[in-house]
Amino acid sequence: MSRDGEPGDGQGTGGEALAAFLPAVQAWFRAALGEPTPPQALGWPAIQRGEHTLILSPTGSGKTLAAFLWGIDQIYREMAAPPEDGADEFQEGVRLLYISPLKALNNDVERNLRVPLAGIRRAGEELGQALPRLDVLVRTGDTPQSARQRMAKHPPQVLITTPESLYLILTSPVARGMFRTLRTVIVDEIHTLVSNKRGVHLAVSLERVAELAGHAVQRIGLSATQRPLDEVARFLGGFETPPSAPRPVTIVDAGMIKPMDLRVVTAVDDFDQLPGGSIWPAVIPRVLDLVEAHRTTLIFANSRRQAERAADRLNEVHLSRQAGGERDAAALGVDGTVKGAGFQGTGAVGGPFRAHHGSVSREARLQLEEALKEGRLPALVGTSSLELGIDIGAVDLVVQLQSPKGVAQGLQRVGRSGHLVGQTSVGRIFTTHREDLLEAAAIARAMREGDVEPGMTPQNSLDVLAQQIVAMVSVQDWEAGALLSLIRRAYPYHRLTPELYRSVLEMLSGRYPSAAFRELRPRIAWDRVHDRLAALPGSRLLAVRNGGTIPDRGSFGAYLPDRKTRLGELDEEFVFETRPGDVFVLGSNTWRVQDVTEDRVIVSPAPGHLPRMPFWRGDALRRDYHLGCIYGRFRRELAGRLASEPEAGDVVAWLRREYALDEASARNAVDYVRHQVEVLGAISSDRTIIAELFPDPVGDLRLVVHSPFGARVNSPWALALASA
Predict the structure, then answer these.
(1) Is the CB of residue 283 less than 8 Å from the CB of residue 310?
(2) Spatial separation of the C-alpha atoms in residues 584 and 609, rounded to whole Å
(3) Would you say domain 260-449 falls under CATH 3.40.50.300?
């Protein structure tokens, strides 16, 4: 893998790279944006040479335009050039394919492309160089069937889609033809795909696209947080077979760290002294103070339920202040208890705060994003649904409730503020308990250093392999050897052995290892004499209905009484515990259940009633092993400093300087670790595991293993201990 430049290098090459564009593109860029940013100046030379290119650059640095602009330039050149080989006119088909893991990001990119495309055409007219209209369309699961059919007949020059929709297009006998003219593929937010099976699935789809095109297709990968770059480059470029060697990919490292004003905040002086026994009456007023002091704020929560709770509590305190009532922790208290504790909400009616997450309907999410962008909302409470590169306007502050549970996640979230080139990102992480405080401190230090979690691609995922084989065979017959050769070009399968591959073919063609599976029918036909694979009736329907690797969570849609207006979705376990007449919160609005069908919950507005807070299983974020090592090392270093430095003030100053802690956070961290060492003589760390045995209320002995290494270590360890 070759590398072009380091952070800050390449500024002098920006003008030379820009000079290679059409005059209209140059004129628009200089008038609208001025000089190229580092990812543009460093990335364009490689992209213009036709090389596969991986660009690492902070959020808001112009890397998306760096990937798009040369492809747009080339499409204009091709459309304006005379037809080749005696063709009558420009051949319809997709030239530039943009893939991102998030539907909302796709819609946003399509909107943002309108400005440069319109500006380039205006610049062309002013220069006397008329440019043709360039079509840009989005194809996701939300695209109506009629639009999909029109797209198949008259494909756009630029297609924006998701990994799953790309797979579905490739599995359509008619629509897949739009990729025969493809020249460039852009994979955005590639860090979210490298280390999971969704990325494995996409890697095979990229090889299918290249095979269909029949010529070299340039690949461009983008992310603000990706490590190690060599691994990501191998994932992006794939392998050549034979010989089995990674395709060359030029790595453009324009830096990961942008200027950050980061601070870890603790809203109480002592976690043992909480108002009403809860941290939230202290946290929420502090967050509201920050919102009122800034123009636009994004508030991130780590789960959908926490987002709903935070919006509800913020509205309660906001309404109290509007009415001239309590402004601090007392605004969330009633007779010494906390409003909205347990399963209940506060019952607040009105207020400007709304929850934005994946279980709120797409229409509602778009409305919230537009309202924030237009300044009609002072803040928005979101989850990972707002984490990636969605354009939500000028955000000047990000508030994170609890530790972000990951370095890359923290950088993505804080990077939402100061999103324009040259701006400083401002982030405040509010901690809610002592362990949360230590983890937030470790993450804050790693965010400053750019020490993100490495992503390693799963190898030889046989479930994904089986799915892609059925999809490929459903649209054309294959020689088994040729199909294996294509599969092995994808990095996750470059070491796939013929024996393992044929065992999957055996299963798919109906040869199961036991009579217990004899009722399972074959999915494809395998002619072993001629070694050819062919579809069976129902193969394509099976491939289309079961595409992708995103699990089906068994959710229920929430609908208004017209049974057409969709509000969002609810977890099936929450619905199982819900009866007609119950009141709950969704999207910061209160709803009463009218009816529960086999797949829908019919609701009507119920403002003013005390609601239940919904929950969604599988919402909790898990600590990565790499972060576990960082976290454990910090615990060890803090304990070591406390042992060697008698003055706590020196340690507090070190924590504030190196780990971005405020005064209360630093003192709470010192007191907590010192107390742990005094009681146990040690603290769990990257070099120390503590096993604690204690009697439960019944008198039975219980074992707790204190380990900082995260779920991938602790979960199997717990299973092993439980079955010992």
Answers:
(1) no
(2) 9
(3) yes
Residue with tokens 């890359």: 408
Other CB atoms within 10 Å distance of the CB of residue 124: 21
- Asked whether the beta carbons of 302 and 402 are under 8 A apart, the reply is yes
User: What are the tokens at 488?
Assistant: 């092995």
Indicate if the pLDDT at residue 716 is higher than 80.
Answer: yes
Listed by start position, the domains of the chain span 2-253, 260-449, 462-544, 556-605, 625-722
- Nearest alpha carbon to residue 685 among 642, 655, 640, 622: 640
Is the C-alpha dihedral spanning 40, 42, 43, 44 positive or negative?
positive
Average pLDDT of span 701-723: 89
Fold agreement between 2-253 and 260-449 = yes
| Cα-based distances in Å from 551 to 198, 546, 547, 555, 618 | 10, 10, 10, 11, 11
Tens of pLDDT, residue by residue over 149-172, are: 999 999 999 999 999 999 999 999
Instruction: Give per-residue pLDDT as tens, 377-386.
Output: 999 999 887 7
Dist. CA 522–CA 512, nearest whole Å: 9
Distance, CA of 214 to CA of 378 (rounded, Å)? 51
Q: What Cα–Cα distance (Å) separates residue 127 from each residue in 25, 266, 420?
A: 11, 58, 29
Predicted model pTM = 0.87
**Residue 39, φ and ψ in degrees, nearest 5:** -65, -30
pLDDT mean across residues, the chain: 89
Q: How confident is the model at residue 359 (pLDDT cuts 50, 70, 90)?
A: confident
Q: For 420, which DSSP code?
A: S
By three-state DSSP, how is residue 240 classified?
strand
Tracing tokens 């503020």 back to the chain, one arrives at 417
Q: Name which of 89, 79, 50 is nearest 157 in CA terms.
A: 79
**Domain 2-253 top-level CATH class:** alpha beta
Question: From CA 88, how far away is CA 181, in angstroms rounded?
Answer: 16
pLDDT of amino acid 514: 66
Report the alpha-carbon distance of residue 555 to residue 576 in Å, rounded: 11
Q: CA angle, corner 294, sides to 288 and 299, nearest 5?
A: 55
Sign of CA dihedral 205, 208, 212, 218: positive
Pairing of strands 96-99, 52-56: unpaired
Angle, CA of 460, 465 and 470, to the nearest 5° = 170
| 283-333 confidence digits (pLDDT tens) | 999 999 999 999 999 999 999 999 999 999 999 999 999 988 888 888 887
Q: Exposure of 140 by Cβ count < 10 A (0-12 exposed, 13-18 middle, 19+ buried)?
A: middle
Token pair in block for residue 124: 């062309």
CB proximity list for 334: less than 8 A, separation 6 or greater: none
Q: Where are the alpha helices (DSSP H) in 422-571?
A: 434-449, 462-475, 480-487, 498-508, 539-545
Q: What does the DSSP 8-state code read for residue 79?
A: H
Alpha-carbon span 91 to 679, nearest angstrom: 76
Which residue type is seen at 241?
A: T
Sheet holding 478-479, edge to edge: 478-479, 532-535, 524-527
CA 54 to mean position of chain CA atoms: 18
**Is the distance from CB of 592 to CB of 582 less than 8 angstroms?**
yes
Rounded CA-CA distance 263/430 in Å is: 9
Q: Give Cα 649 distance to the centre of its chain.
A: 40
Query: For residue 624, is pLDDT > 60?
Result: yes
